[in-house]
Amino acid sequence: MSWTGGAPDFNLPPLPDTAEMYMGYLALEKGYSSATVRGYACDLAQFEDFLQRRDMSLDTPADIVPRTIHDFLADLHRQHVGKSSMGRKLSALRGFFRYLARKGFIRSVPTEGITNPRQAQRSPRALNVDQAYAVLDTRTQAASRAQVHVRQAHKREQLTRDLALAELLYGSGLRISEALALDLCHTDPSSGLIKVTGKGSKERIVPLSDTSRQALQLWLDVRETLDVSGGAEQAVFLGARGGRLDRRQALRIIEDLCRAAGLPQTVSPHALRHSFATHLLEAGADMRSVQELLGHERLTTTQRYTHLTLRKIVEVYDRAHPGSKAGKGGSK
Q1: 54 is catalytic
Q2: Tens of pLDDT along 113-140?
Q3: pLDDT per residue over 210-269, tens digit each?
Q4: 290-308 b/e with 16+ CB inside 10 Å = b?
Q5: Would residue 40 show up in a list of annotated catalytic residues for this protein?
Q6: Contact at 8 Å (CB) between 46 and 96?
Q7: Which of 199, 204, 244, 307 is catalytic?
Q8: Contact of 61 with 100, CB cutoff 8 Å
């Protein structure tokens, strides 16, 4: 697939020509990340497998009608696929067929009018403040690592890297993909700011907390010990072999930090980002500012991201809105 630019991390399944063309559009024109493109490709490959069993194909999209989509969703339901996963796959199909319609391959979009399965709104589990601090406590982590069997022990440099990564997720609210995509040219701890490339290749400037800045600088000071490229590798976070740290390694790093902190449960990198947003809002930060920090396009996304109760939202309103009694200095 020439449109991948030879990137080794796409690992896409075999796809019909129409789907490959769409993947190229997502990667090159929309600027989607390799992880996003790979997810869309896997969803379309699963739908193609469903079609093949009915002597159909994505390469003959005009044969696909709304009934076909409904049958696919019913098949997923029989396989006990979760509603959120079904919704994601349907979203991938919507984008694909709308793209084909714009290109003139089909006259009607078979996914139009088909809604996502209804599902309960739920937010990722957030740590409380004490748990977050325990995960990021240098002394606790160092003491815990020292007790691990020597064959499993991390070097001091790796622990420095791990804590810097976790600090960026919690201290600055980065997505794990954003942290792993950081390059040295966009990272200057002394400035207190970093340039982050988010979804859709959109860039934003993110402030660093004091502890994030210190942790990141400590890692950059020893980063060269893991850089086996002679300075050619520009990734901020490196794996044990010297290349850019990948998502699977990052997940394991956060799990190890949670385990070392004595948490009763492990959390995902995304949960640290969610904890960042939740703790800011609970401390009185306004929703719009948190939206900007997280890089959300819509405020409703930020609202779903939080555990704020209606009472908490009302308290923020009463304290901040000039039309409220509290905002006017209290009732007379």
Answers
A1: no
A2: 998 877 655 555 678 888 888 888 876 6
A3: 889 999 999 999 888 877 777 788 999 998 788 899 999 999 999 888 888 888 777 888
A4: bbebbbbeeeeebbebbeb
A5: no
A6: no
A7: 199
A8: yes
Active site residue 199: yes
Choosing from 89, 273, 274, 279, the catalytic residue is: 273
Tokens of 58: 């994505």
Contact 18, 59 (CB under 8 A): yes
Distance CA 147, CA 47 (A): 49
273 carries an active-site annotation: yes
Which listed residue (186, 270, 307, 312) is catalytic? Answer: 270
The secondary structure of 152-191 as a DSSP string is TPPPHHHHHHHHHHHHHHHHS---HHHHHT-BGGGEEGGG
Direct distance between the N- and C-terminal alpha carbons of the chain, in angstroms, rounded to an integer: 71
Report how far residue 161's alpha carbon sits from residue 241's, in angstroms, rounded to the nearest whole number: 14
DSSP at 124: -
- How many residues does this entry show for the chain? 332
- Total-model pTM: 0.59
Query: Which ranges of the chain does DSSP label H, i.e. alpha helix?
Result: 17-24, 34-52, 66-78, 83-102, 129-136, 138-147, 156-171, 176-180, 210-222, 247-260, 269-282, 287-294, 299-304, 310-320
For residue 73, pLDDT over 60 is answered with yes
At 186, phi and psi to the nearest 5?
A: -105, 15
Which one of the listed residues 175, 213, 223, 279 is annotated catalytic? 175
Q: Which residue has the tokens 């040295």?
A: 184
Question: Does residue 296 have an active-site annotation?
Answer: yes
Q: What is the pLDDT of residue 66?
A: 95
CA dist., res. 12 & res. 306, Å (int)? 34
Answer yes or no: 252 catalytic: no
On average, the pLDDT of the chain sits at 82
Q: Return the pLDDT at 6.
A: 37
